[in-house]
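[agent] plan:
  1. take the single chain provided in the ticket
  2. run structure prediction with default settings
  3. attach structure tokens to the ticket
  4. add a short note for the reviewer (M.T.)
[agent] executing step 1
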Amino acid sequence: MKQATRFLWVGLALTLCLPAAGAESATKEDPAHEELRALRRELTQAINGNDLEKLLALLDDDVVVTFMNAEVARTPKEVKAYYDRMMKGDHRIVDSFTTDPTVDELTHLYGDTGVAFGNSKDHFKLVDGRNFQIETRWTAALVKKQGKWKLAAFHASANIFDNPVLYIAAKRAAMWAGGIAALVALIIGFAAALFFKKRPRPA
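[agent] step 2 finished; step 3 output follows
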């Protein structure tokens, strides 16, 4: 009886230690997630390395990108035109741009389509000397065609009430306002001095 009880406890212990049937398969990650991580790394390297050709190759032919300045580019050709205008030539605005994106959670998969979202630390160096970092929220749609994942849509946005661009603009506006106020005060003071100088003194 004691031996039977011992075997019963040993069997129960082994049962508790072993994973439940199907538990391993239930927690096994979809291989698509590792493929999507590779895509994110490639996109980040292309952007940070200013490798436009590599970036365009990772975009779907029908890609739609909404940039932080609310401009929209449709197709890789329009994305290239936007980058060329913003970062090349004598009239460019951006001198350099780097990004460090992170995802909030695993991409939501719907067959050969995925939706991802997260945040990024985007560093801008502008031609006019401004240098700042913006905390950005982003949403992306991914599609798998011919066995390869590509970016199908991307939307980036920043806090319109609290970001470095607004702070710099407000600081410059305050400096301009202060300068204009000082100039107006100087003109008024000069005019008043002339008025009292020309005013005849009482006999």
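[agent] step 4 note for reviewer: The CA atoms of residues 37 and 81 lie 27 Å apart.
[agent] ticket updated
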